[in-house]
Amino acid sequence: MLQGVTVGPSDPLIANRLTLLGMRPINNVVDASNYLMLELGQPSHPYDLATLGGAGFRVRLANEGETITTLDDVERTVTPADLLICDATDVPVGIAGIMGGADSEISDATTDVVVEMAWFERMPLAKSSRRLGVRSEASARFERGVDPDGIDLAQDRFVELLGGVGGGSVGSVSQGLVDERGQLPDRTPIEVRPARVNAILGADLSPKEMKDLLDPIGFTTELGAEGEAMRVALPSFRLDSEVEIDVVEEVGRMYGYARLGKTMPVSSLSGHLTRRQLERRRLRSLLTGLGLSEAAPMPFLAPGDLERAGLPGDGITITNPLVAEESVLRTSLLPGLLKAVRHNVGHRNEGIALFEIGHVFRRPMDPDAELPDERETVAVIVAGADATAAVEAWRTVCDGLSVPDADVANAEMPGLHATRSGVVRVEGEPVGAVGEVDPEVLAAYDIPGRVAWLEVDLDRFLAHPHGEPTYTPVSRFPSSDIDLAFEVAEGTSATDVASTIERAAGDLLGWVRLFDTYRGEGVRNGHRSLTYRVRLQARDRTLTDGEVGEVRQAIIDAVQAGFPAHLRG
Length: 569
Known about the structure:
single chain; alpha+beta; Phenylalanyl-tRNA Synthetase, Chain B, domain 3; Phenylalanyl-tRNA Synthetase, Chain B, domain 1; BirA Bifunctional Protein, domain 2; 4 domains; seven-stranded mixed beta sheet; 17 helices; 24% strand; elongated
């Protein structure tokens, strides 16, 4: 109890610090209480002795339906699960650990102050706070845990703050302190086994080293005989530490987790994806990244479907089909995807782009074989696009799967346009077809416009070396683009022309792309115009106009020397 207290503004230093910490200065008594809570973590509540009934306290559980008006001028109804601070006449003056009552508030007329400090169990107080919808600075600290042995220090600090340090005035301090204790947390020293600590942490620390780590943070340790457990006294301010494993955690934290090293627990794997499954997932990701949607037509065709798609009618007939109308196994993914495109066109869904990864069934080379030649195939179909879209899909697949030495060669392929089709190759081996679907096939399926097509035999494709990407540094110097149009014979491979351009450009080549194919006025019959964009870029300098001109002329000379071709004006 503090007598002869002069209530007034706090010292500017105290007031400014409270303001910076988000609390509003009120007066020197209340400010001392708030400052103490922020400094030592111990909430306190000062009461005006003159308004405290009976000049004393009684702590009890609330009665059903009992009410109290708190400092925020809100009348709150409490329950028997809530703890109240009452005056000696049993009138509630505060909700324990949460908020004080309005009737005993400190005012300018206060001269005698009674300071109440307490320790409360965390969970009951937290439940009361949630039930009442009140969360104060004090309740937040009690919920986290307050040091029950720190109240004596907090009381002395309160008097110091309210006296000269805080700029206030106190006449006298009563020595008649009241100390009532309930059931405090058990701080009995616990046994900690050094071998257990080392086993959990994966360390090799001696008991003496553990003691040196624990003592500085308040875990006073008494070593036992060799091979025996240590006795560790838990500090009162660490209510989160109760058992042996909590002490093990403190040893690890103080020793440093980085010094413990890292080990990966060994576990049995129940299964994993095969390399082929991973490659199939990668392939799906690449194709969906191109804006394609995956389709899954049935592998069964009606008699005549292969011929309608421009393919040989040598499909294997099923002896027990699900339905008689679908009794032929597909030899290509083309008929099924053409039907899917036709279905979308019929529903006014134009520009459809699909892909499928599925199996095809062909007659075996060995006439005595009992099973068909079953192969996994990937196909891409893009309505409203020309052959360049299919070639771009082929290049994307090769780049994504890191397949070297892949190209395209002109060739007539079944079901594709006679002059707009080719074979895709890896290391010179044909692995599929690319181009545009034959207009007669499109007419048979009632599909307007042009349709790009790519089909690759995955078994042959992935049998070649792949999956080892190579990286080149990115140049920080500007690039130069040149466009070149060559008139070539219809039988000349656009890929071969591009390869010649690459060799002629040498180390200065960034990339070369065919972006236009033209037949018509200004181009001789039996010929077509191929227009390439060539990007030139050096890794160590900015190219001069003279250097770009030299490379351009070298490309023109190489193409005109290697093919029946000439540069168009």
